Amino acid sequence: MDLAYKLKRLWAFCFMARPRIYDNPEELEKAVDDYFEIQGNKTMTGLALALGFDSRQSLYDYQKNNEFSYIINKALLRIENKYEQQLSGNNVAGSIFVLKNMGWKDKIEQDLNHNGGVQIVMNKVESVKPSYETKAE
């Protein structure tokens, strides 16, 4: 094989995008709704697999496209809501971990009293309007 052919193949491999799985928002929305109708835990990776993607990054790529962003944002919000509801249960460590990876953070507010001591006023988990975009995996 000559060098020009190898370089052409390398360029095609590195820079050519795969064809989209969903060509219109209606197809994507139906696939998302089908995923949420089945029984079982709902996760970001589960959603990605159900949509036929090979990584979570594909979710983020569709999210960047204005044509599909509302559908993906709503689907991710539904998953986030599930974990938020689980915070009222007995075993919340997993939900806290997932929510922190979705952009939530622990927030501790402190009140300094006049004696120089510190009194913790509140400890809560707070949403910081996450951006689900990540760097390439």
Structure notes:
This protein has 137 residues and is of the alpha+beta class. It has a single domain (3-126), classed as Topoisomerase I, Chain A, domain 4. It is 50% helix and 12% strand. The protein is built from six helices and two strands. Strands 1-2 form a two-stranded antiparallel ribbon. The protein is extended. The mean pLDDT is 79.
Side by side, the strands of the main sheet go: 1-2
User: Which residues form runs of ≥5 with pLDDT under 50?
Assistant: none
H-E order: HHHHHHEE
Q: Which architecture per CATH?
A: Orthogonal Bundle
CATH topology: Topoisomerase I, Chain A, domain 4
Helix content: 40-55%
Structural class: alpha+beta
Identify the CATH class. Mainly Alpha
How would the global form be characterised? extended
Layout of helices and strands:
Layout: H1 3-15, H2 25-37, H3 44-50, H4 56-64, H5 69-85, H6 93-101, E1 105-112, E2 118-126
Antiparallel strand pairs: 1-2
Task: Give a quick summary of the entry.
The protein is α+β, with helices and mostly antiparallel strands and 137 residues long.
Which key terms come to mind for this protein?
alpha+beta, 137 residues, two-stranded antiparallel sheet, Topoisomerase I, Chain A, domain 4, 12% strand
